[in-house]
Structures are given as structure tokens and as C-alpha cells.
Write a structure and sequence with these properties.
Layout lengths: L17 E2 L6 E6 L24 E9 L3 H12 L6 E3 L8 E9 L3 H5 L6 E9 L10 E9 L5 H8 L5 E3 L14 H9 L3 H9 L7 H11 L3 H7 L5 H13 L2 H4 L5 H24 L11 E2 L2 E6 L9 H13 L8 E2 L3 E2 L3 E4 L1 E3 L1 E8 L2 E9 L4 H9 L4
Parallel strand pairs: 2-5
Antiparallel strand pairs: 1-7, 2-7, 3-5, 3-6, 4-5, 7-16, 8-14, 9-10, 10-13, 11-12, 15-16
Length: 390
Amino acid sequence: MPININKFILDMERFDGTLKKYPEDFIVEEITPEGTVLEVGKEIGFEDVEKWHGSFIHFTVEKTNWNTMDALKQIVRATKTKRKNFGFAGTKDKFAVTTQRFGCFGLKKEQLENINIKDIVIRDVQKTNKKLRMGGLWGNKFTIKIRDLNLSEKEIKRISDLKLDYVLNYYGIQRFGLIRPITHIVGKFIYERDFESAFYTYCGTPINETGDSLEARQLVDMGEFKKALKLFNRGHDYEKRLIQQYLKYKDFKMAFTALPPQLNSMFVNAYQAYLFNEMINKRFDYGFDELEGDILEDNTPTGTLIGYDTKFSGGIQGEIEKEIVERENLDLKKFKIEDFGNFYGTRRKMVTPIYDFKSRFENEIFELSFKLERGNYATIVTREFTGNLS
């Protein structure tokens, strides 16, 4: 089951290169709703809210080779504060240098002062009365280096002259799984209420794996759950939770209650994203200028993330959306899934602008810098040049 990322904006011969050779090759700096870039290595100096009632603390976390959730676990442990008190505006990947705002209810500035976690820096601590919620950012600034290029002067000149103003608004590989792109497959099984297949797909089905991890997944596929548990390591906490819960209740649906609700929602969201990516592919030949019947956002045609409350476009775009629903044999009411959530469906722009795009070659390194609104993927931009998603 592919992830439906097939089309390109740039008409060019793409080049091979190494992305993310070092974490410093992929810098992600969060941009606040007010437009402030949380620059790496820079103190911003956010002012405390004047009439502060002691509710929330916000702070910037700069981290190298940490994803958001793992960094948060360490900060929770260091501050001896409950996980549920924390929030963040957006998630960041691991193999990168990233900045982002965290928020916490009832935390004191002093609790952050003596934190010593390798490759994590905390600064810009601010007292405020507002809770930091998911989506509470404008977007991100990316500075990306692609290494190990072997290009002629002519090729360098050709690529340097390219200008990229917008990109297809695909959901990137991160939504489906960098190593094992199966999140959307699990989501489809959950939508179909086939929890047994969802379980085996997530815990079994080895892809791009070796050693104990490969053997553990093979054991799951054979039904040898207890043996598999002994081989899954610390990086497979969710697989272990699922298996332990299944062994306790002998119920595949019940097994998924051992996972965080956000993760269970993410499975179905990934299936919606997979279908959305296909809409982009089918719309591509018609172009992305406004057509009769389009539903627009910022004067840009949108596609639907299919859910129980989906409102279809008219015209050609509506035909595309309905064709996918019919082919997948979808019953929209079934997107209300007990114990997993109500997936009402929304709309998303099919192309998205790129802001402040710059590129340069230096010492056989191609460096890109640009800004994207929240929810958009930098790897979709780099793919326009390299053809690769990771």
C-alpha cells in the first residue's frame, strides 16, 4: 500500500545526494503565531505577562537528535511534574537540530534552571496565563544541507537558477512512518474494525529491520507473542504494550486501549492523509487554478480529509473525492469509532506557498532555506530536487 506521493512541481532531472548526514544538516526553527522565529542559539527574551496569576510557564527547547516526545519525557522527569500538565504547539523529528515552545501548568521558573540533559538547552522562560495548545504556531523555518553531490558546473548553474514558490501539499513520509510506513494501513484496518489485522500489522510485518527487531516481528506473525516480548527492545514500547494488553484480555480491540489516545487517533489520521495524497495525484492533470465547484481556502483549491461530516466539492474536484470514497467502499458514518475518536473530516489546501526560499551551492553542498506554514512538510520540498522522501 503506497503513500501516494507521485507528482512533482519542478520539471527537472533530479540529483542524488545525502540528506540528514548529520543532525546539523536539518535545522527546524519554530515560528510563533506572532511571526517570531525561535532561532538556534539565540535568546529571544519573551516578557512575562504583566498581570500574571501563576498559571502557566512557557519556554523554548533547543534540542539536537531528540524528537519532541522523548525530550518531553526527560523534562517531565527532571522537573518532577506530571506529563498531563505539559503542552506544545507542534512535534519535531529526531535527527535534526530543532527549536520549539513548550508550556506547563503550575511549573516554577526555578524548576527549569538546573536541568542538565545532554543536547537539550532551555531558555526564554516566560510566565503567562495562556495554555500552549497543539497548532499554536505559525509554522517553521528550515535550513537544510544536502551533501555528497557530484554535479558539473552546468548542472550547478541550472539548479541554482531554479525558483520554487509553492509545493504540492502532500502529507510527508513522517505521517506514515519513516522506517516502517504502515501507520495508514493500521488506520484502515481500525476504520474497518479489523483490530486483529491492525494488531499484526503494527507489531508484526517486518520492514527494513534486522536483528532482534526482525525476529520479534516474525514471532508476532507466527503468534508467538510471549517470545516476541523478550526480543522487543526499549525502542518498541508501544508494541510491548499492545502485546501485554492482548495477553491479559485476549481481545485485539482491547489491546489498543494500552496506547495513548493520540497515537490511536494518529492511525486513522494517517489513513485520511493517504487518501488526501491520492486526491492531489488525481487533481494534478487538471492543474490547481480554481475550477468550478472548488472549495477554496486563501484562494487555493482544497481537498477533503474524508470523515463522517465530509462536505464534497462540486465539479471535477467533487468527482475525484467521490470516486475515492466509492473505490475504498467507505461509509462515512464509520469514521465515528468507539474508543478511538470521531474523525469528522476537514479540508486542506492541495498546494501550499513556500516563503523566503533561498538556495546556494558551496563545497559540494546544496543548502536550502525556506519557511512553511504549520502542517506542511520540508521533505516534500527537498524531494522536488532529489526525488527522495528521506
